[in-house]
Design a protein that fits this description.
With 55 residues, chain A is mainly alpha-helical. Chain A is built from 1 helix and 1 strand. Chain A is elongated. Chain B has 2 domains: 159 residues, Tetracycline Repressor, domain 2 (Orthogonal Bundle); 134 residues, Four Helix Bundle (Hemerythrin (Met), subunit A) (Up-down Bundle). Classes of the chains: A mainly alpha (55), B mainly alpha (311). At the A-B interface, β1 and α1 of A face β1, α4 and α6 of B. Chain B: Pathway: Porphyrin-containing compound metabolism; heme O biosynthesis; heme O from protoheme: step 1/1.
């Protein structure tokens, strides 16, 4: 019985793989930078008096 | 029986572009200009902003400008492909698919507006959103292909960053940033039309109704002179209002006279190499003029070089 045709992509060339890897690293760095940005923003918005409150 | 197999080459979508290609989509040189003019808008404002908040706000404004540039490249890929200056951009060159650019631009648009809203205030975020929509939708999708006044009206998008900068610092819009807006707005036509005079053939081939193609080169040259005559005194308004000092006054006067002089040279030299030299001379000088004006304001405000001309 004939099976569904499989789509086979040719393997990526080393150059294409390197490009994909660089892109992944860039996305990771961008995500890290966003985390840092929101952290700094939060601290700056809360201000130094945030811990100075009655317990 | 063996299964049927189909071997496909991965499309550009499957392989994806290089990191610099995505960066190029953001028009980095425009981003630098936007950071610079927004920073000047912040520096001339009466108020104070925390350095971290100011830096994050500037970053958000720059990313928002980049996002609108990315959306512009997505929409204009067909035009970019037929113009020598833009044919090597990532989309017409086939390194990034239009869909990727659209997704990237939309994500950065929303993210930049959200971050600016969180960091600064809703007015600044609203102005940034307006700038992005104005540039990507009003200018790119509509005006650019519809009217010879495209870059005149579209210039408003490029002129807004100082206003956003002031909104970040003060939470409002003041006369200072509105004057800076007006200067960039009036500066844009002579700047762009000088280039359009030289590239008129390419714009015609791409079907873009730039002023030299629609009204003719001579009318364009006259309009360039009129705009420069308007720009030269407008450039000195910051001195009259008291936020431009002596250094600014000198640069504004010399630069304004230079703009008028070079515009008249464009009007007089209408053929051959002299025409090209005159137009490119004005184009180059116009960049220097605007950069010098804004640098003078920044230096006066941040380096303590301000010497009042008007009491």
């Amino acid at each position: 019985m004939a099976r569904e045709p499989e789509i086979q992509y040719r393997p990526l060339t080393p150059e294409e793989e390197a490009r994909r890897r660089k892109r992944s690293v860039a996305i990771a760095l961008a995500l890290g930078a966003m985390v840092l940005l929101f952290f700094v923003l939060t601290i700056a918005k809360l201000g130094p008096q945030v811990l100075n409150r009655p317990l | 029986m063996t299964s049927a197999t189909t071997t496909l080459n991965p499309t550009v979508e499957a392989v994806g572009g290089d990191v610099p290609d995505y960066f190029a989509l953001l028009k980095p040189r425009v981003m630098v200009l936007v950071i610079f003019t927004a920073l000047v808008g912040m520096s001339v404002s009466q108020g104070h902003v925390q350095p971290a908040i100011g830096a994050i706000s500037l970053f958000a404004i720059a990313v928002g400008a980049g996002a609108s540039g990315c959306l512009n490249m997505w929409w204009d890929a067909d035009i970019d492909a037929v113009m020598s200056r833009t044919a090597t951009r990532p989309i017409p060159a086939g390194r990034i698919t239009p869909g990727e650019a659209l997704g990237f631009g939309l994500f950065l648009s929303v993210a930049s507006v959200l971050v600016l809203g969180l960091a600064a205030n809703l007015l600044a975020a609203g102005l940034l959103a307006f700038t992005i929509v104005f540039y990507a939708v009003i200018y790119s999708m509509w005006l650019k292909r519809a009217t010879a006044q495209n870059i005149v009206i579209g210039g408003a998008a490029g002129a807004l960053p100082p206003v956003i900068g002031q909104a970040v610092v003060t939470g409002g819009i003041g006369i200072e940033s509105l004057v800076l807006f007006a200067i960039i707005f009036i500066w844009t036509p002579p700047h762009f039309w000088a280039l359009a005079l030289i590239k008129a053939g390419e714009y015609a081939r791409a079907g873009i109704p730039m002023m030299p193609n629609v009204a003719g080169p001579d009318s364009t040259r006259r309009q360039i002179v009129w705009y420069s005559l308007l720009l030269a005194p407008l450039g000195l308004v910051p001195v009259a209002l008291g936020f431009g000092g002596l250094l600014y006054a000198v640069i504004g006067t010399v630069g304004g006279l230079g703009m008028v002089g070079l515009s008249v040279r464009v009007l007089r030299n209408r053929t051959g190499e002299a025409e090209r030299k005159a137009a490119m001379g004005l184009f180059g000088f116009s960049i220097l003029y605007l950069f010098a004006l804004f640098s003078a304001l920044l230096a006066e405000q941040s380096l303590g070089l301000f010497r009042a001309v008007v009491a």
